């Protein structure tokens, strides 16, 4: 009986000793297992701090800009100017961008006369405009599309045929790959950047024989679409299925062909300033910073234009 009691005590003691060792082992491992968790938590915390700092800097930059910017000029640049104004005001909520579409020449006159911060021109600036202080800031490249009414059977024009249609030498579509039908020549009003670029490229200054001279890109599109035998020129970014797009010298009007120079009718989109950009106020400088940024490039592409890079 005594031996059984001693044996029981021995077993009980061994069990207690084992539990004690297990407890010590568990306690000694706890710090080791918690250390990696602390290390893992540090990385996300650092990321959050970096993101927060970036957001703060952006907010501070936005908070530092307030006031208004005025743009005036080319009707061909309307789509681009409206998209730019909307995107810039979204980025800088305390800034208002107002755009008016009065024609390229009027826009350059407005910026030189101090009535506008920026003059939008869909042509290169003239020497006399530069002599007065206007600076040519090219922000995008646009193709000039030649269009007819949808029912026209002509599909392609050579450069010589296009010149001869606009100078009045060719007056019937049968002489330019189409049906026996009179040609109705549609163009823009004097002072239009599109007209200026078109006539300059084709060396047709003051030589075009227009049946109609219209005051906006939209008006040319509507007139050509609704007039049998009509031909007109418009900005490439406004083309839709209401008109027929002609190829020129067998080359389609698209970004790739304009960049390579294979399509000969293209022109710059200019945001003219009175003096260099560096001499403008902070709002205007911020606007140009945005236009020439990666965000600006995406905006240019989104409205069907070609970046300058």
From TrEMBL:
PANTHER family linked to this entry: PERIPLASMIC PHOSPHATE BINDING COMPONENT OF PHOSPHATE ABC TRANSPORTER, PHOSPHATE-BINDING PROTEIN PSTS
Assembly mode: The complex is composed of two ATP-binding proteins (PstB), two transmembrane proteins (PstC and PstA) and a solute-binding protein (PstS).
Keyword ATP-binding among record annotations: no
Keyword Cell membrane: yes
Major localisation: membrane
PROSITE patterns: PROKAR_LIPOPROTEIN
Pfam families: PBP_like_2 (PF12849)
NCBIfam families in UniProt: ptsS_2
Designated name of the protein: Phosphate-binding protein
Gene Ontology cellular component terms for the protein in this record: plasma membrane
Similarity comment: Belongs to the PstS family.
GO molecular function: phosphate ion binding
Residue ranges constituting the PBP domain according to the UniProt record: 59-295
Any single GO BP term: phosphate ion transport
SUPFAM superfamilies associated with the record: Periplasmic binding protein-like II
UniProt xrefs under InterPro entries: PBP_domain, Phos-bd, Phosphate_ABC_transporter
Signal peptide (from-to): 1-22
Cellular localisation: Cell membrane
Source organism superkingdom: Bacteria
Membrane topology: Lipid-anchor
Keywords noted in UniProt: Cell membrane, Lipoprotein, Membrane, Palmitate, Phosphate transport, Signal, Transport
